[in-house]
Structures are given as C-alpha cells and as structure tokens.
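Encode chain A's predicted structure.
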Amino acid sequence: MLALLQRVPDAWIALLLGCVGGWAFLKLQPKNRAREIVADKLSGAVLVFVVFTRFSGILQQPSLSLRDNLMALIGGTPPGGIFVGLAASMLYLIISLWRKKALDQTKLKLVAQTLVVGAIPYFAYRAYVDLHPYRFEDLVRCGFAVILYLLSRRASMYAHRVWAVAGATLFGTSLLVPHVELYTVFDLSQWTFLLIMAASISVEAWYDVAGTSPAAGLVKDEHVQREGKRDCL
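Encoded structure for chain A:
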C-alpha cells in the first residue's frame, strides 16, 4: 500500500488536500440553496477536471494516443493537460450554474471563496514537497491565499475582483521561478493567469459602462432567498 501511495504524483495529492479544504469550508457555511448548488456544481467540476486532465492526450493528439498502449495513456498527464482540464471544468461550472439560473454574485463569490480556501492546503503541501525556488513560490501563494480569503469577506470584494487579485498573485509569483516552454514571452500558465485578470477587469468595466453595481445583484439574491424561505413556511 505504501509503495502504491508513493507512486501517486504530488500534484494529485495536493489537489485532494485542496478539495478537502474546500469541502470543509462549504460545510461550515450556512445551509441554504447557494451552498447546496455550489457544492454540487464544484464536485462535478472537480470530476470534469480530473477526467479531462488525464485523457486530454486524446483531444490533443487523437491519432497518436489511440495507437499507444492504454496504460501509457492513463499513466501520466500529457503536456498541457492541466490547462485542458481547467478550461473544461470552468466551462462546465459556468454552463451548469447558468442552467440552474444561479449565475449571480452570491454563488459566484462563494465559488471563488471555496477555491481560494482550497488553495491554502494545496500550496502548503506543494511547499512541503517542492524544491527551491518553487518552494518559495508556493509559500508566497499560500500566504496570499489566506490574505485573499480575508479580503473576500468584505462586501465590496465581489467575485470578479477576487479572481482579478488571484490572477495577479499567481502571475506575479510565477515570475519568481524559471520557465522552459515559452510562448513568445510567457509560458502557458502565465498566459492563463493574464487571461483571468483580463476577464475580471472586463467584468468590472462592463459594470462601469452599464452604470450598474454588483451590489444590486447581491440585494436581489438576498430578496429571492427570503422569498423562498417565506414560501417554505
């Protein structure tokens, strides 16, 4: 059993610890419709991430993957597989929340907070197993995750602002370590962090141009929740 556990990649153990941390955070939240929806959809998003990450080689190079041995296909994560998994899980999360009519500030902020809290044990474990300079990068990210969660508890820290700070933190800390496979000036992970920042800033700009505030959405969500509780009574 010990030999089998030693063969599990550190990244997957860190992901498991992150999932446990996120699950514990959700369990501590008030039991309401928002928590139930977010817990259900995040569980599905994690499953989608794992499946697409492991089998992304079929999507990237289907002719080569199908000719390879099946055990070789599932034995390791293909290069770039984690980003295929991230894209698939985020797409699943957005579509599933939209179909549930739950794509609002309350649920989105709870999603962001859950992921930030889950990142704390994830990066803490990575700091334990990684070597310098990646260990320092993980420690900084772990510390910033704690600070970001505390900031996210403020009413003015809407979901897209949490994502913007998270993207900036991940990008800034990524500059502390060397990167091998560069696409122009950055590697794939850094471009992903920049995309998160750009998307978050675009949402903020949209609110400014439309002349609306995310706070209006939060008030509406709270009103809907109160009406739902009143109907149940």
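The chain has one domain: 7-214.
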